[in-house]
């Protein structure tokens, strides 16, 4: 999904496993960029995107610490740029493989033909809800929304990608990670998940979003807040 986001270039593509969406955002071609949620096996496709648009990563933003969202963070950071993650999920970057069951590890190794390994990023920057990050000429607002994990966050960014139809009536963008999907929400039955916390996040962080918010989730297609407010059963049941 290439496009411009209020003058900002935005590209997204799925990782090689679990369909995790990786996002690349910059103020334009030939500029520094921000990479959001570099999951499993994204290095080659990310390299192609960076080369095509002449981009240089300035930071990696992580919506949470699950392996399918962070597996490529260390090679992408390359020891030179920071990996930003909420304080409550910081511990997950020490070794996210420890929270993955042996069946998932086995499936991973069978698919990629190599042993799953992990090296912690050398520069980890802890963030908190309400914080504003100014990176590569862009401003990202952090919304702490625990439930899927303790440190799950959403990243707010002004503007929308070009190519979004006018009838969508959206003016701002939220990278929702695994908090909110089109028609669903992130699961809460994994270690660190908390259904009551998720309901609070949906009620106090998600529902107050304006209807003109474009939602870019960690998995699956994008949506709008107006659509999710009207059709998402997890929001309607609150």
TrEMBL record:
| SMART domains, alphabetized | Lactamase_B (SM00849)
Region named Disordered: 217-238
| Limits of the Metallo-beta-lactamase domain | 19-219
Q: Which UniProt keywords apply?
A: Hydrolase, Metal-binding, Zinc
Which cofactors are named for this entry?
A: Zn(2+)
Lineage, broadest ranks: Bacteria, Bacillati, Actinomycetota, Actinomycetes, Micrococcales
Source species, domain of life: Bacteria
**InterPro entries in the cross-refs:** MBL_Glyoxalase_II, Metallo-B-lactamas, RibonucZ/Hydroxyglut_hydro
Specify the protein name.
Glyoxylase-like metal-dependent hydrolase (Beta-lactamase superfamily II)
GO molecular function annotation: hydrolase activity; metal ion binding
